């Protein structure tokens, strides 16, 4: 047997799971913009056409990558305290996204929720329902939480650019914004997607929301009371 034949014999069979795991690992190193079917094929040491037996196109590859990342989120913990269970799982999702910073863009770019995202959201809705929230309240809770359910939040503006001395005219024209900017202290290494969404800000808002939902549950809130 030649060396080339031995190499082919020892080669790990290509399957969808291996393709997706390699794509996730490649995106972690190169970023999502550098990912291509050709580059992925090179990484797996196969011809590009071999990939299409497992993913139909680039969009299906991205769908699968989003699912692979979401499946890394810890399962719900046991216990009757629904707030603790939800909080723990959301912070697990955030840790996952910190490991794969490109995943936020991919998840947001999907035209609809992928199977793993749907399963995750279904499980989260079940946690709210098991915690005593009505279906009506849970519906509104899911809307209020939005992307926070998956561990990230969308900022109004991108403030992740290079820092520098504040604009001298800021305090004159926008005194309240200038005051807030002067007191802000954010950890740039803990952001998901840039901006002021660092770990403290994320957990601060998360805890406010969860406490508010629990208060509504205790009050027996329904959407019929909106008016």
From TrEMBL:
InterPro entries registered for this protein in UniProt: Homeodomain-like_sf, HTH-type_TetR-like_transc_reg, HTH_TetR, Repressor_TetR_C, Tet_transcr_reg_TetR, Tet_transcr_reg_TetR-rel_C_sf
Transmembrane segments: none
Domain HTH tetR-type: 13-73
DNA-binding region location: 36-55
UniProt keyword list: DNA-binding, Repressor, Transcription, Transcription regulation
SUPFAM superfamilies, per database record: Homeodomain-like, Tetracyclin repressor-like, C-terminal domain
Domain of life: Bacteria
One Pfam family per UniProt: TetR_C_1
Name of this protein: TetR/AcrR family transcriptional regulator C-terminal domain-containing protein
Species of origin: Streptomyces exfoliatus (Streptomyces hydrogenans)
